[in-house]
Amino acid sequence: MKLIIIFVIILITGCASGLNSMQRQELLGYESKGLAIEEKSTATATALGLLPGGGSFYTRNYGLGVLNLLVWPYSVLWDPISGFNGAQEINYHATLANCSKLKNSEMSDLDTLLMAKQIDVTEYTIKKHTIENKYSSIYVNNSLTENTHVSPSPSPTTNNQPSKTDSVNGKFTSD
Fold this sequence. Notes:
This protein has helices at about 1-15, 20-30, 40-50, 55-60, 60-70, 80-115, 120-135, 140-145; strands at about 165, 170-175. With about 180 residues, the chain is mostly helical. Strands 1-2 form a two-stranded antiparallel sheet. The longest helix is centred in the middle third of the chain and has 37 residues, at about 80-115.
């Protein structure tokens, strides 16, 4: 009976899912741009998970921490992972909040410049696009978003005459 209770507790508390794949990619995008906030250390959360309920308490999962404390030595099996996931989730939400705050501040400043007629609509649009790219989690190559003219590749023929294909080796020839 005691094993069944422990198994049920492990199933219930050991399902710390952390971030989904999209959130992980988004956090990596913010990290690559230097915008990620580390409110809780994932290494500390993992290490504290070896103590009775430590990883859960560190990541503000107090109910889970008490439960892990009660089933301690078994909680060592899942609490380090739970602590890591909890810290990562806290960092993800802190990063989103910070980026949103910074973006709103910059957009407000930009709106003020437009209202004061210090910039025109075209410049406003360009700067707005730059701010949106800066605070998006996805890397955007600015050269792809600019209007560029692609010149056609040079023709394999000369003198603007139609080309003929050599039937033996498949090379272009001109008359």
